Amino acid sequence: MDKPTQVTGVEHWAGKATLDGNVRLFLWEKFVDTPDGKPAVLFVHGSSMASQPTFDLHVPGRADSSAMEYFAGLGYDTWTMDNEGYGRSDKSRPINCDIPNGADDLAAGTAYIQQTTGAKKFLVYGISSGALKAALFAERHPERVARLALDAFVWTGKGSPTLEQRKKRLPEFAAKNRRPIDRAFVHSIFERDHPGTADKATIEAFADEILKLDNSVPTGTYVDMCSKLPLVDPQKITVPTIVMRGEFDGIASFEDLIDFYGRLPNPDKQFTVMAGISHASFQQKNYMMVYHILHAFFSQPDPIYRA
Fold first, then answer.
1. Is the C-alpha dihedral spanning 251, 253, 254, 255 positive or negative?
2. Residue 45 and residue 211: Cα distance in Å, rounded?
3. CB atoms < 10 A from the CB of 194, how many?
4. Which among 104, 69, 59 is positioned nearest to 208, based on CA atoms?
5. Among 279, 291, 288, residue whose Cα is nearest residue 49
6. Contact 70, 64 (CB under 8 A)
């Protein structure tokens, strides 16, 4: 009989030095038995919710709903963090917590994990604006990234129906540092592209956990995605990279992503289309397919021959 496995969750706090003083950032780690010697995965959340609702969600009757626990069971040391302005991290500075600031958070968080565990490189997954933060972090710190997964990513914004609609509210977002969120807003995430890709119980559980932590979130990522793209240079992302695009995702067009993908210089790269997926991949009905794609990429051996 196999030995029972127990997933352990550990809270951590990292500091980020700023001109306004030290910012406290919440990190959450999950592993089976021990994290020692295991590859470290860092999950990066998006614009409208904190980390734990996205990556450690528990839904009754939905097996492996927590991505962190699923990947911990596969032998990874899994980490996520609340960017500044979200969840349990510091919300005191009068800033809109834009994408470059989020990449600063990832630099501070990974430095803390390196000091705490001895990990040298990370398998990094980012979704939506989290993918932009992860890409910018990889551009700035390629020495810390073993493999990079960009889900629901956008490069220039060309051909994006979601951003086209969002731009209509740009003056409102630009005028303040935070925007309100509620249950109806969470529902809209699953209704805007292709209704039916996520089940009701998961959507409600997701909304419950998001709203326990936040009733407003920073505007910076929305402002950046509506008015400042492109924020990353694909030719400066030198690490192995996968671009993951949901079949129905409205945040970026195929043309925009294929152009980005073609400019990535590392030949160890992949582009995958996820059938039946809209925007929030881990909360979709086809989430196990997403896990499979991600694990296959993260566990892929490095090439032993290069021309």
1. negative
2. 15
3. 17
4. 59
5. 279
6. yes
Judge whether 165 and 214 are in contact, CB under 8 Å: no
Question: Residue 196 corresponds to which tokens in the numbers above?
Answer: 């039916």
The type of residue at 225 is M
- Cα–Cα distance measured from residue 132 to residue 137, given in angstroms and rounded to the nearest whole number: 8
CA distance 24 to 38: 26
Read off the pTM.
0.97
- Among residues of the chain, what percentage have pLDDT more than 90? 97
Residue in 67, 12, 7, 66 with CA at minimum distance from that of residue 33: 7
Largest CA distance in the chain: 61
Distance CA 218, CA 221 (A): 7
Written as six digits, the tokens of 163 are 């951003």
How crowded is residue 185: how many other Cβ atoms within 10 Å of its Cβ?
Answer: 16
pLDDT in tens, 41-53: 999 999 999 999 9
- Cβ–Cβ under 8 Å, residues 108 and 25: yes
Enumerate residues 6+ apart whose C-beta is below 8 A from 196. none
